[in-house]
Amino acid sequence: MPQPFNRQPRPRPQFRPQPDEMVFGIQSVIETLRSDQQIDKLYMEKGLSHPEIQNLAFQNRVTIQRVPVEKLDRLTRKNHQGVVCLVAQVQYVKLSNVVADVYERGETPFFLLLDRITDVRNFGAIARTAECTGIQCIVIPGRGAAAINSDAMKTSSGALNHISVCREPDLTETVKYLQESGITVVACTEKSNRDLYERSTDLTGPIAVIMGSEEDGISPELLRMADNHVKIPLLGSVGSLNVSVATGVVLYEAVRQRSIKVDK
């Protein structure tokens, strides 16, 4: 007697939005969170509660940014249902893995922490300089950082494809972890009494340089936690440098010092 034909159900296609794509609507965002794509930004309307999205975001270490509905309406005119996310252009890595890998390779840690750098083009320019100076990892906060979108990728001239990026929910905990890992945290701030070019400024060891926001610099708590503070001498009338330029000055001074140490 012939057996009945049993049609196997087709596997459900995986939802894979393109990098830098905006995804909106509750179900679409849920599917994105379930996929292996990493999310750069996740916006949710203030007052909206959705346990599944919130749980998935927590599991994926994605910070939910609560915003007024007007912001979501500016992002898209379509029915967003109170939630919008942006797919990341890069794959974020764990800082602990980077630290372990650097030490295992016998290299001297050389990291860069960006505290609330929100301008996309500044971030891209910083990433380009960081890659050129041998920075092994850029660390950004989960909230209050520039989106790593196509503009950032373009401004970095592709450098973001060649450098590790870590997204940490709390930079104060990150600083503690780096210090416990034997890495000196150096804050670049105009409030410092130590000139970048003084002989006492040593950037040759394991270091993580902190650069602060375009508006108000490094947050007070991070300044208090930093092991050392340095300032870039300014000889003109303008009171500050663009943060991407300032980052280049500090990182290349570290490169200069390290090259001299190697030559000796």
Automatic annotation (TrEMBL):
Gene3D superfamilies: 3.30.1330.30, 3.40.1280.10. GO terms for biological process: methylation; RNA processing. The keyword Endoplasmic reticulum does not apply. Pfam families: SpoU_methylase, SpoU_sub_bind. The keyword Transferase applies. Residues 22-93 form the RNA 2-O ribose methyltransferase substrate binding domain. GO terms for molecular function: RNA binding; RNA methyltransferase activity. Keywords: Methyltransferase, Transferase. One of its GO terms (cellular component) is cytosol. Transmembrane segments: none annotated. It comes from the Bacteria. This is 23S rRNA (Guanosine(2251)-2'-O)-methyltransferase RlmB. The gene is rlmB.
